[in-house]
Amino acid sequence: MKADKLYNHERRDQEANAFYHTSRWTKVRDFVKSRDMMTSGLSGKVLSDHDYIVDHIVPRRLCSDPFDDTNLWLLSRQEHNRKTKYEKVLPDSVLKSLTADDWRKKLSINRN
User: Fold this and answer.
1) Is residue 85 a contact partner of residue 110, using CB atoms and an 8 Å limit?
2) In this structure, are residues 52 and 30 in contact, taking their beta carbons and an 8 Å threshold?
3) If DSSP states are collapsed to H, E and C, what string results for 17-77?
């Protein structure tokens, strides 16, 4: 998508951009898509090829292994944007301990 390319080149930090373009990440991402059957880990809705993000439950910068598929789930772009909004204000000490269930509770209460 054109918006994704613009984001990758202008807004995403270059370390993250390089990571998300590796063949190892592509393989893990595709595994998670298949494992989760293109279903959102938050809402349970089936996602389209144009409306999904393979997301790190504990942010990539804070997890010990960014390729660990047990720390990955599918979210819609809208869900991912809401989660990212929270990640920007929560301290790292909290982000490191949040589970998928914690995120489901937090994101289902406040639907901004």
Assistant:
1) no
2) no
3) HHHCCCHHHHHHHHHHHHHCCCECCCCCCECCCCCCEEEECCCCCCCCCCCCHHHEEEECH
Bridge partners (DSSP) of residue 55 are 73
What is the structure's pLDDT at 101? 97
Q: Residue 48 and residue 19: Cα distance in Å, rounded?
A: 23
Q: Give the span between the Cα atoms of 109 and 78, in whole angstroms.
A: 15
pLDDT at residue number 27: 98
Could you report the average pLDDT of every consecutive run of 10 residues in the chain (112 residues)?
50 82 97 97 95 97 96 97 95 97 86 48
Tokens of 103: 């995120």
| Amino acid found at 30 | D
